[in-house]
Design a protein that fits this description.
- With about 250 residues, the chain is mostly helical.
- It folds into two domains: about 110 residues; about 120 residues, Four Helix Bundle (Hemerythrin (Met), subunit A), CATH 1.20.120.
- About 80% of the residues lie in helices and about 0% in strands.
- It has a two-stranded antiparallel ribbon.
- The chain is elongated and about 85 Å long.
- About 25% of the residues are buried.
Length: about 250
């Protein structure tokens, strides 16, 4: 027995309106989440790489969801318009469009779960770290993460000493924190205390540090530890060089 055509009419009219309203509410919620993420990134510069990865991931989700939603609404309206006629495959079309409407709602709920996940920064850091493994040329040999951060702290202190020795004024962050790792590297480059090659190396080290920290990993790669130590050696001559310049002056 074929379903009543009035039942199909009202069901798919409501479906088109409901899907559109649901996606509208979802986008409003995402706008709030996005503003909170942007505020967190402004407060903490170490979230830059993770924020960029999350934005790209959420953009892909939204693109897929927008296409699926558009298809669901248009096909629902097609079912409503063609409901007046009987033709072969009519109820196959009805079933197919119902599944598309359901898929749009399920995908929207999945998007909400992903954007509001309390561990989204950690999960994003793990994904980015895995994606960048070939670029970083990691050896796969692990060292305790505590040892990595201890050596990295010495590198950051060496950068601050180099900035102070060169009498470089670096603005503090708006939240009152001292200059970040990236700001120190940029200041040294802009004042010609380091070359572009060392600056790129310091930026890569800083990015790796951010991913390891926010990814809550228990080990770091020995290759990156060696790169930190090599960068420290390249910074050591800066203090003596500045003292010689003062003596000449």
């Amino acid at each position: 027995m074929a379903p009543n055509v009035d039942y199909i009419y009202w069901t798919f009219t409501a479906a088109a309106q409901s899907v559109a309203a649901f996606i509208g509410l979802l986008l409003a919620g995402y706008a709030l989440v996005h503003s909170l993420m942007e505020a967190a990134r402004e407060r903490d510069e170490t979230l830059d790489e993770i924020y960029a990865a999350l934005r790209l991931r959420f953009h892909r989700w939204l693109s897929m969801l927008a296409g699926l939603t558009c298809l669901a609404i248009v096909l629902s309206l097609v079912v409503v318009y063609t409901n007046r006629w009987e033709f072969p495959g009519k109820y196959v079309l009805v079933a197919l469009v119902a599944l598309i409407d359901l898929a749009a709602v399920v995908c929207g709920l999945a998007f909400v779960v992903n954007t509001s996940h309390p561990s989204r920064y950690m999960l994003a850091a793990e994904r980015v770290l895995a994606q960048r493994r070939p670029d970083l040329k990691l050896s796969g040999e692990s060292v305790p993460v505590g040892k990595f951060f201890a050596i990295l702290a010495r590198l950051e202190r060496a950068m601050r000493r180099a900035v102070q020795a060169a009498d470089i004024a670096v603005e503090s962050n708006t939240n009152g924190r001292p200059p970040s790792f990236k700001q120190l590297a940029d200041a040294l480059l802009q004042n010609e205390r380091i070359d572009a090659d060392l600056h790129r190396e310091l930026i890569v080290i800083g990015q790796y540090r951010n991913l390891v920290y926010h990814g809550h990993v228990s080990t770091a790669d020995k290759t990156m530890l060696d790169r930190v130590q090599a960068a420290m050696k390249r910074l050591e001559p800066l203090r003596g060089e500045r003292e010689r310049e003062r003596a000449v002056a």
